[in-house]
């Protein structure tokens, strides 16, 4: 077995990326403080062909050197938009028939491993602030809350790690139906 060279990875060009069919997932970042986390979410979104990222509240926007450090150019491929009010965005997305899922620890949350996405449905995944999590008014206005099962002592994951876990899980479930 040998490692592949970068030239063997079959990477899409920026134009090809923009034209390819996207995974029916939207990422909403609700007041994320860390620019490195923001960049990492962009990179994960590029890897799994996410439709769009919404940057809300205090969440910083590209271009910024600390976002670029972890995004590695994905701010040029993944569609994104800044919206000041996460709640107004959630209300607009719901009107557009997008299902809102907050990723949070909450009463009656559905464990990620028990969630099966519906076909022909677009989901907006809301990830919250590194300290306070997803704002309660957003949790209250969500169609569903998904929790990542955790079994250790901390029951806390970095937001970029949470995004990677959830996006990979939903991507694999959504694409399994295509095979």
Report low-confidence residues grouped into runs of 5 or more.
Answer: none
What CATH architecture do you see?
3-Layer(aba) Sandwich
User: How many helices?
Assistant: 6
Please give the radius of gyration in angstroms.
16 Å
Total of domains: 1
What is the element string, with H for helices and E for strands?
HEHEHEHEEEHEH
**CATH topology (fold) name:** Alpha/beta knot
The CATH class: Alpha Beta
Largest sheet: 7 strands, parallel
Order of neighbouring strands in the sheet with most strands: 3-2-1-6-4-7-5
Question: Could you tell me the number of beta strands?
Answer: 7
Question: What name goes with the CATH superfamily?
Answer: SPOUT methyltransferase, trefoil knot domain
Shape: globular
What does this structure look like?
This protein has a single domain (20-176), classed as Alpha/beta knot (3-Layer(aba) Sandwich). The protein has 6 helices and 7 strands. It has helices at 14-19, 35-47, 65-71, 86-95, 136-140, 159-176; strands spanning 23-30, 50-56, 80-83, 99-103, 110-111, 123-128, 144-147. Strand 2, helix 3 (65-71) and strand 3 form a beta-alpha-beta unit. Helix 2 (35-47) packs parallel to helix 3 (65-71) and helix 2 (35-47) runs parallel beside helix 6. It is globular.
